[in-house]
Design a protein that fits this description.
Number of domains: 1
Radius of gyration: 19 Å
Bound molecules: heme C
Strand content: under 5%
Distance between the termini: 37 Å
Helix content: 25-40%
Number of helices: 6
Shape: globular
Order of helices and strands: HHEEHHEEHH
Strand order of the largest sheet: 1-2
Number of strands: 4
Length: about 170
């Protein structure tokens, strides 16, 4: 029964969104997890010369070390060269950072399908009247170094009454 309801819900969403976006599905997603102050990228990049050469960055973004099929590619395979506030798909289509899952989905098709169905990567919200939200792939995976690292063990969860001192 739960599954049937879920299915109806998904169809409902799909229909709702396909009405507004005829080309492809859009999903209500969490905000892109940018570091503070980095976006809009065009603050710096507008008017900056585009350097397409694969190199070690020395002046900025020095903490980014590509470790994601890096032999075959470079930053500008994903980031739009002349509009740095956007991402670029392999076919040249320009998309927003809120749709980065489409970028990932180009190569990780099976996971992308699972994600859309809510099997891979969880969705939050819904039951208390809030909007259902999908996490972006990049909420969990670093796009530059995505292999999941074992996390440090977390301290035990704090119960709400402890947290809020009730
Ligand atoms: C596989 C595609 C891909 C490649 C290759 C890639 N990026 Fe990214 N990058 C992304 C995505 C997707 C995001 C958005 C993350 C988010 O939503 O917060 C991002 C975010 C960023 C950000 C913002 C980071 C922050 O701290 O919030 C910077 C800066 C950046 N990329 C620079 C680079 C540079 C420089 C390279 C090359 C060395 C590169 N990217 C290669 C996909 C890519
Ligand atoms: C504070 C200024 C600043 C901001 C903000 C900034 N960048 Fe950059 N970015 C630079 C500089 C400077 C370089 C060149 C670094 C070098 O050559 O060592 C660079 C290089 C890059 C490159 C390598 C390719 C190229 O054109 O040289 C990518 C990709 C990139 N930035 C993406 C982003 C993205 C995506 C964002 C926003 C999420 C962003 N940057 C925000 C200053 C900035
Ligand atoms: C152009 C194709 C391509 C795109 C686009 C791409 N990936 Fe990948 N991804 C690969 C390949 C190839 C590997 C395996 C090689 C490696 O890990 O360097 C990989 C590895 C991974 C892994 C590690 C898998 C493991 O075995 O642990 C994750 C997680 C991942 N990608 C997530 C993402 C996310 C998230 C995005 C979008 C920001 C993305 N990928 C975009 C091709 C791609
Ligand atoms: C809520 C967090 C979360 C979200 C969102 C998420 N993932 Fe993952 N992903 C994980 C975790 C955790 C693992 C490791 C699972 C394991 O090792 O069994 C993983 C594993 C992977 C792997 C490697 C495992 C395999 O079967 O090859 C790839 C590739 C991947 N994710 C891609 C994606 C893409 C693409 C998206 C978005 C369409 C995405 N993920 C969204 C948490 C997430």
């Amino acid at each position: 029964m739960k599954r049937v309801l879920l299915l109806i819900f998904l169809v409902f969403i799909a229909v709702g969104f396909s009405a507004s976006a005829a080309q492809h599905d859009e999903y209500p997603v969490a905000s892109p997890p940018f570091s503070e102050g980095i976006f809009p990228c065009s603050n710096c990049h507008a008017g900056m010369e585009v350097n397409t050469k694969k190199r070690e960055l020395k002046d900025e973004h020095t903490s980014i070390k590509l470790h994601h099929a890096e032999k075959e590619r470079w930053c500008l395979d994903c980031h739009h060269a002349s509009n740095r506030d956007k991402l670029k798909l392999a076919d040249g289509e320009i998309i927003n950072f809120t749709e980065s899952y489409r970028l990932c989905g180009q190569c990780h098709g099976n996971i992308y399908r699972d994600w859309k169905a809510g099997i891979h990567g969880k969705r939050v919200g819904s039951f208390r009247g809030g909007k259902r939200t999908y996490f972006l792939c990049v909420n969990c995976h670093n796009p530059h170094d995505p292999k999941f690292k074992p996390l440090k063990p977390e301290p035990p969860p704090i119960r709400p009454e402890q947290q809020y001192g009730k």
